[in-house]
Design brief:
A hairpin with a 4-residue loop joins β3 and β4. The termini are far apart. The relative contact order is 0.14. The chain has one domain: 3-Layer(aba) Sandwich (Aminopeptidase), CATH 3.40.630. The protein has 4 helices and 5 strands, in the order βααβββαβα. The chain is globular.
Length: 162
């Protein structure tokens, strides 16, 4: 491994960024914390173009030389309670050989810097209960579960597939 990891904001008009994003998101999908199975070919075929069409997308890639080793994908949302935008961290993936070196912290710091520049009031993310290392990393960075009123419990992330 090189000792210098460089971070770059994702620019999907660059073929090397598009390839890196697809490669890393595919590895993340195959990882047990990403679901354990690869993206469908039809998803891979359209993902980059669909992300390019979204004004709310922001991402950061980490490279060891020319090798992509980490990715963070984010989408800007809006907090009605704050009347300000928010930045949702949707995907965080670090190659196994690069974990435990503070790379996710560097990626999150770049996201926070951009979110502050955009006037966001908060960062949000979802994490699996069983992903203890990610939870510990997010806590060290300053994330916490939230409750509007502790008497009503903590917020939960739910989904309904369409």
């Amino acid at each position: 491994m090189c000792s210098v990891i460089t971070l770059v904001d994702v620019d999907l008009s660059l073929p090397e960024h598009a390839r890196a994003l697809l490669e890393l998101i595919s590895r993340y999908a195959r990882d047990p914390m990403g679901g354990g199975e690869d993206l469908a070919p039809e998803v891979k075929a359209v993902l980059v173009q669909r992300l390019r069409e979204r004004a709310d997308y922001f991402g950061v890639l980490a490279f060891d030389g020319a090798t992509p080793v980490a990715l963070i994908n984010c989408f800007e949302g809006f907090s009605t309670f704050m009347a300000r935008p928010l930045m949702n961290v949707h995907d965080v993936y670090v190659e196994p050989d690069y974990r435990g070196q503070g790379l996710s912290h560097r990626l999150l710091q770049r996201v926070e810097d951009v979110a502050r520049l955009r006037g966001c009031g908060k960062l949000t993310l979802e994490v699996l209960d069983g992903n203890a290392s990610a939870i510990a990393s997010y806590r060290r960075f300053g994330f916490e579960t939230y409750a509007l009123d502790p008497a009503f419990g903590r917020a939960q992330f739910w989904q309904k597939k369409l």
